[in-house]
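Researcher: Next sequence.
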Amino acid sequence: QLQACGGGLVQAGGSLRLSCAASGGIFSNYIMAWFRLAPGNEREFVAAIGWSGFSTTYVDTVKGRFAIFRDNAKNTVYLQMNSLKPEDTADYYCAANRGSWSGVREVNGYDYWGQGTLVTVSS
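Model: Next structure:
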């Protein structure tokens, strides 16, 4: 199971840190990622991190503002979001993928999903 939390209401320019705790044997050998879903849009890839933590990738719109990192001892992946913009408003979902790195941006490549945590950025 994946349990996400940390969403909330923040003003533009502010910061939030999302957390996603894994259980049930899901984590150590999994690629972890964050996706988001805004009203009227399709689920969008945000960021992913390899099992070791050394490989990361981001959608262009969040590069330089968001950082994904993981603590394998705590089975938790984080998304640090800085310089938030109103267009970052969405439900954010964590996901786990035991497949290859080549498919990390694809929704269909993920085996497990957490529930969404809502991030609202006011202008």
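Model: The mean pLDDT is 95. The radius of gyration is 13 Å.
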